[in-house]
Design brief:
heterodimer, A: 8 helices, B: 2 domains, 6-stranded parallel sheet, 6 strands
Chain lengths: ~230, ~325
Amino acid sequence: MKRLIPLWITAIAGIVLIASYFVPYAQGLGELTSIWFDILAGFAFILGGGNLLKVHLKKVSDKAAGWGYSVILLASFLITLFVGLGKIGVHPSPDYPDNSWSGVYNEVGSPFWWLYEYAFKPLTATMFAMLAFYIASASFRAFRAKNVEAVLLLGTAFIILLGRTFAGVWLTSWLPESLSGLKIENLSVYIMQVFNTAGSRAIIIGIALGIASTSLKVILGVDRSYLGSARSEP
Amino acid sequence: MNVAWAWTILVVVVGASLVVLVTRREQTYRALKDLDRRWIFLLMLLAVAIPILGELTFPEKPTGLAKAVFDEIEKLEPGDKVLMAWDYDPASEGELGPMATAFTYHCCKKGLKMYYMTIFSPVGPQMIEDAIEHVIKADFPHLEYGVDYVNLGYKSGYEGVIKVIVSNIRELYTTDHYGKSVQDIPMMRDVRNIQQMDLIINVSAGYAGLKEWVLFAATPYPDLTLVAGVTGVMAPQQYPYIPEQLRGLLGAIKGAAEYEKLVLDKYGDEDPDPKYLKGKQRMGPQLIAHMLIIVLIIVANFVYFAGKRRERA
């Protein structure tokens, strides 16, 4: 029963969603299924939070390698949750002045806003910005003109790198209008719109066929790995 | 710092490096072969920091895709409805913030009704707040919340949200981001679903984002018009949807700078506020960083081939 009910839910939801795409009469059912999905997705945040607590509390209790980071993560998580859910320091909404919880949780100047503005925002931006350093390091260590394919890749990379800046425009600005197709900025657009589009379309079609086949296996109950078991019946 | 100075510095640096490379070949090879990657990190830091501090900017030449985005918004009439799907977070704000600002500025200038929402991340509403605070409230104070623009906030469910709101927005959005009932928001009263939108503008940093808007809104409902701005890594994957499902696309900072130019050329003042030039400002560091990466690849290949020659000898 523990496995049968989820299998039926998956099968019915999948069939309804497919039917709603092709059969106008089933659109209402498809909408209903999507709403259920959205509600479940909301609950996933609670599950995610619970799982985060479980994993990191275990790491701290086992004194596993890097447990100090888990302490920082747990403290940050709990403080943010407390401040946000409790609407600490938030003023009541003008529409409901008597209800102290009626204000917006991220009101400017509130502790939650402060955490977002001065902790979350700079930290996530820093993480993303560090990519530039890793790309620079990778460009020095990984890109080698070892064979014809690698030379083609490098040549394309140079054209795109130059074409995405004013350097590309400047370097080939001397070319006459009759040869404007050879200007780096135009070459860069051509590569993206022709070679990249053709390759991407092929990949997208391949992925779509793969997803369709996997989805059918899941809907029909052939692939049951999503239920927590790695076994799938042939 | 002007362009001539920048090129002079570049030519001097590259020239000096070549002289060292030719005259002290053996020492250069050994130094580069065992180069500590912290030197590369330092070079990248300088490549980004110097143009920012020196306010190095370059002219922009808009490409066809940026013009296509601009033209789709230009086609609209004052009072037309635009869904502003702000699907990004602070991590990608550096890349997507300038185009989001330019989109809002353009829509305000055109007098369009702006419906903001996000399905990407729970911090998406803060990105919307940035656009509202820094553009609408700062430069268009006559625009009224609920009449000219509304913040519908974040909804969990990724593409599931799109699937519902294309046919019935009230099923999921009963209140706006601040908890106010949509019944009490004048510009929401006659909106039943997003098929009523005259244009969807999506600023996307990943899943759920542009691909989901294409698959679950623009494709099944061909009357919906979609334009977008995405991060650099996402842009190549979106080209297959142009021009049928996606009318125009801004790719990263370059796309933002091109679109900014188009908007400011038509609607900007003689001395526009620096916040409307962020894309152009960020192209300076991008140019120098790209040049550094090209130089690093060339140098690394010099070391590689020199090493192979030594192995054979």
